[in-house]
């Protein structure tokens, strides 16, 4: 799996979020088969998407929010980012997504995109080691040893 494949999977998943719904970066990572700890990677991919900021941008990026419903930390909303956040808030409000008084998505009442339960993570899922019975010594020893990586269950 290449980085381009990962990026395309994130872009496809983002494009699948229907109007009026939101998804968190962690849930979007889970949707593409990554652990939720890859939320920052998903955010970086969406932030550096092709055609970002142009009329040719096909992705509904504004539907992807942080777990607390915010777009950025309050101290990060300045300069060009302020226009970006206001644009996202306006689009979400137009779609009927409930907002809090401080401009975050109300995650308690917002309709969140459901993630299927059967999605398995693609990385970090190593094959389990073959379990060696305590009575079977490894090829290095005459007896089972817990300190040997070939002996450990």
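-> sequence recovered:
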């Amino acid at each position: 799996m290449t980085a381009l494949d990962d990026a395309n999977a994130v872009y496809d998943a983002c494009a699948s979020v229907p109007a009026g719904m939101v998804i968190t970066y962690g849930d979007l990572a889970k949707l593409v088969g990554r652990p939720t700890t890859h939320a920052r990677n998903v955010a970086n991919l969406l932030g550096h998407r092709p055609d970002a900021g142009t009329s040719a941008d096909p992705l509904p990026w504004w539907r992807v929010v942080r777990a607390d419903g915010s777009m950025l930390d309050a101290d990060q909303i300045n300069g060009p980012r302020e226009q970006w956040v206001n644009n996202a808030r306006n689009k979400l409000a137009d779609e009927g997504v409930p907002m809090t008084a401080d401009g975050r998505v109300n995650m308690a009442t917002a309709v969140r995109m459901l993630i299927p339960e059967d999605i398995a993570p693609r990385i970090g899922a190593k094959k389990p080691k073959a379990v060696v019975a305590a009575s079977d010594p490894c090829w290095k020893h005459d007896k089972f040893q817990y300190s040997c990586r070939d002996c450990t269950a």
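The first helix runs from residue 3 to 15.
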